[in-house]
Amino acid sequence: MSPRLRSAGPIAWMARHSVAPNLLMLVLILGGLFMSAQIRQELFPSYEMQTVSVSVSLPGATPEEVEQSVILAIEEELRPIQGIDKVVATAREGSASVVAELDPGEDRQLVYDNIQQAVARITTFPDDAERPRVTLDARRREVVKLHVHGDVDARSLRMAAEHVRSVLLQQPEISQVDLTGSPDLEIHVEIGQATLRAHGLTLGEVAATIRAAALERGG
Hints:
Radius of gyration: 31 Å
Strand order of the largest sheet: 2-3-1-4
Number of helices: 8
Low-confidence stretches: 215-219
Order of helices and strands: HHHEHEEHEHHH
Largest sheet: 4 strands, antiparallel
Helix content: 40-55%
Number of strands: 4
């Protein structure tokens, strides 16, 4: 073999020594098998939510009224808080939702406490507004969506969905079931003027009493 071929590099050297490539291949295979066993595998990768939600109910209000009387006040209070990256607000009929996305690496509990204190300082909410709910969004995994439908009225459909939800929650493997896409149940109270006068009440007083009782049961 000529000197030129002998100095052709590592490929030529391995061509002359057939055992070396086999040993190298064996090392790579064993190393690959070892490293693959160390790789962490998850069906649902772990993650940590970085949002704080503020929700306020304002029965009977239009989305425009909700925005002007609730959302703008919340956004104004959240603006100076350190650690908030972005605020996303949604105004619906009768309710407001404000989600604060936190900066990565921030102390979630500290920012949550600051937001809770800021919302508690708001005194300009309408009298009909219910107490704001401030929540530190927890880690949740959506596994299965179950749709319940049928040719029945909305109340019957919701009752069927509530039954399915109760049955699912009885399973030890299931920790949480959320009911979405169904309107909230409402109670209509009709009182005649003669009855109001007989008890010396007004509709506003009756509404306030019912609202207070509902809040006590919900809280």
